[in-house]
Request: fold
Amino acid sequence: MVLTPSMMPELGIPAPTFKLPDTDDRVVTLGDFKTSPALLVAFWCNHCPYVQHIRDQFAVFVREYHRRVLASSRSMPTTRRHTLMTAPNA
Reply:
């Protein structure tokens, strides 16, 4: 991951519109968060070693900032079937 070039857009630009499934299979859009001063969208793959490594501290971060200003949503970019097929020991 360290050698992967970043495709991050410039900070401070307006968020693009989106329509994504969250981890409870509900579809969320940018409009769902229009009253939030800040939004974090995290893309997770539960069997990814990097995600497993940061998961607990990331949850602490989200809980702390959620109390302040941060709205958050987690999205699994793969279907459950794909996750089961690509998970270690699958």
Remarks:
- The CA atoms of residues 6 and 43 lie 15 Å apart.
